[in-house]
Amino acid sequence: MGCWSMPKTVQVDALKPLTQKEAEFLQAIEKDKDRFECFQEWKGLEFAMSLSVDSPVEVEVSGDWCEGMVRYIGAVTEPQWSNPITGTFFGIELK
User: Fold this and answer.
1) What does each C-alpha distance from 49 to 2, 8, 21, 29, 89 come to in angstroms?
2) In which region does residue 74 sit, left (phi positive, over 0), alpha (psi from -120 to 50) or beta (all else)?
3) By the 8 A CB rule, do 57 and 24 touch?
4) What is the pTM of this model?
């Protein structure tokens, strides 16, 4: 998991199986630490998975919050045999 390391021990009850859709949304998060935090908090992941094209959103751009509209949800690369989960990304049109 990159240069960020998880604790050496993990409580078994903290483990949770992921659906492919959940894994694809988490895979799109660039930093391992942020991905793990999103997995732990889960509400943000549920919100992201509830969005659809044309959903209004607010996004942070250079420290400022901007209104936008979801225009694309999906992969930005083709799945490969060695990497079948490429991530689910959002294309946002800013107002």
Assistant:
1) 25, 30, 8, 13, 11
2) left
3) no
4) 0.70
Closest by Cα among 43, 40, 46, 33 to 6:
33
* pLDDT at position 41: 85
74 neighbors 89 (Cβ within 8 angstroms): yes
| Calpha distance 48→15 (Å, rounded) | 21
69-72 long-range Cβ contacts below 8 angstroms, 24+ apart: 69/93, 69/95
Q: Rounded distance, CA 11 to CA 27, Å?
A: 22
**pLDDT (tens digit, 9 = 90+) per residue, 8-56?**
777 787 777 888 899 899 989 989 888 888 888 889 889 999 999 999 9
Q: Which two tokens stand for residue 91?
A: 């294309």
Which of helix, strand or coil describes residue 80? strand
